[in-house]
Amino acid sequence: MNFTEKLIVAPGRKIDVRDIDPSEDFGWGKKNLDRLVERNTRGLMEYQYKIYAENRQSLLLVFQAMDAGGKDGTINHVLYAMNPQGCRSHSFKVPTKEEAEHDFLWRYHKVAPSAGEVVIFNRSHYESVLVEKVHGFVSPKEVKKRYGLINDFEKTLLSNRTTILKFFLHISKEEQLKRFKDRLDDKRKHWKISESDYTEREYWDDYMKAFNGLLNHCSTKHAPWFVIPSNNKEFRNLAVSEIILDAMKHMKPALPETTADLNRIRKLYYPRAAKKE
Amino acid sequence: MNFTEKLIVAPGRKIDVRDIDPSEDFGWGKKNLDRLVERNTRGLMEYQYKIYAENRQSLLLVFQAMDAGGKDGTINHVLYAMNPQGCRSHSFKVPTKEEAEHDFLWRYHKVAPSAGEVVIFNRSHYESVLVEKVHGFVSPKEVKKRYGLINDFEKTLLSNRTTILKFFLHISKEEQLKRFKDRLDDKRKHWKISESDYTEREYWDDYMKAFNGLLNHCSTKHAPWFVIPSNNKEFRNLAVSEIILDAMKHMKPALPETTADLNRIRKLYYPRAAKKE
Hints:
Helices cover about 50% and strands about 10% of the residues of chain A.
């Protein structure tokens, strides 16, 4: 199965995430998926090395989801093996005063990938058309304007050879409640719990509509959105790892040519080995 | 064996790295060391999670070595499993114009760890008393002054609860030549080769003296240096992983207490489960 083609939000096509079953796994079930993810992980490591060495292109991975949707889990399971050299992950907290005094894209632009890097956004500039829209901090008119500015921003990143992949990890409202329960049942996760996790659930449908908005306006050829059915974590990990690996292959990163005179070095510093040849 | 005690440069004691055998492995040989490193890696992941969750302390890992000394290899093998969330790695290239126009610590301070982070310096502020000293870019008097400023800088980081560990990966001159040969023999590594790698070897003894200087002046109680015999890569990985794990344990990171009323949440959102109890 070609996960990229299957799960992409085709630019120009209108979708409604409420039509997409978060439990869909296209018959993959749970069997052996971890082994496939593991194999993909080795591919990701291999390609990350090449991207890093090539030092010419970069990759930006955007993760958005409802709370407990699996952003942390995906980053842990799929991207843990990324070499921290050349890979950065950013989560974005309440804006600082300085950040709030700039345009809404400023703080994201500051940490955009430079050549050779893989950068992960755990939540992203899309929060500005999600939580801010849902809670009415911005007008519908402003939201529409932001879609355009976001597309322009991503085009700017592309101009520096940044490949952008955006993942919406799609879970059901029931699945969220179940996962919240897991946190309640696991002492090690109690620190993550706040009552607002639960009250925010009242806005579920508004969030889905906000996701529809950004998916339908901001899935572009060069910075596509993917809707990943994520009730099944193993399927989610497989899908995300397949899509990233696929994109890395398309980037065709190449190890740089050497500028050194290797034969001269061989003769000068390894005379005996050179003679043997 | 307590690697921390064995390999630390005891503050105040004068050492000469030329007295330390880079092939020393204290009888560990090569047997099964990878499995021990693997086990330590799981410990590192566990503690990194706690440091991240606690969001109060941080860890700075400094790696210095001669070229081919194994900085990249150690980071790959020991720290690959660090979750990119909460772990950053920095290597430092030729200073930009802006960086060069500041004091010699400015660009390092900018990327120092914030609460909850593990930060890796692949080369570091110590280059300012290494390559710059060896090539006479700074006077001996200035070098001495820098030792003091570096110690002050590290004390400042400590004041924000940053634990600092500094590793000198110690290889022999012959081992370096051998490793350079491996690069020559591996097409995938040709891009890393430059002739200056070889000409720089003429300064080997000056570098060792420069290392002596910084080890003897900048190994402090709260930011100690470790000399890791590194001709044997497996031993090196084991030693580094042991020392980091040891330090993380000493940090005693604790998961934060929850501020939510968990019983209220249980009753409100999981009435059936709550009844059963």
